[in-house]
Amino acid sequence: MAPWCYQQLLTPFTFEGCCNRTVFELWLEFILIPTLKPGQTLVLDNATFHKGGRQAELLEAAPCRLLYLRPYSPDLNKIEKCWSWLKARIRHCT
After folding, report:
1. Where's the Tc1-like transposase DDE domain (predicted)?
2. Residue 65 near residue 40 (C-beta atoms within 8 A)
3. Alpha-carbon distance 12 to 16, whole Å?
């Protein structure tokens, strides 16, 4: 996990296994939010673990804004290009 901000990855977080709401909220609360400045906006895609839970509450307390991409909008999701490149590099090394 890592957000894409100003052409760079911020607060990368790796773990073994699948991401779920608990993992995402822990990363959000203890790793990402402490680095955000008040008024910043976090844009999330529509992954199931991005919805529900405490995300909105955590960001509101930051105070930051939460926006969701519209469904099926990979062209608007700039982090996807980064993940694609990174996964290709990892596959090439193994």
Report:
1. 5-92
2. yes
3. 14
| CA–CA dist 86, 90 (Å, integer) | 6
Tokens at residue 20, please? 């779920």
The residues, ordered by sequence, that sit 6+ positions from 57 with a Cβ below 8 Å of its Cβ are: none
20-74: per-residue pLDDT in tens?
999 999 999 999 999 999 999 998 888 888 888 898 899 989 999 998 887 766 6
| DSSP assigned state of 74 | G
Q: Count the Cβ atoms, other than its own, within 10 Å of residue 47.
A: 12
Q: Identify the residue whose tokens are 């296994």.
A: 17
Calculate Rg over the CA atoms of the chain: 14
| H or E segment and range at residue 84 | helix 79-93
Please check whether residue 25 is in contact with residue 1, taking contact to mean a CB–CB distance below 8 angstroms. Answer: no
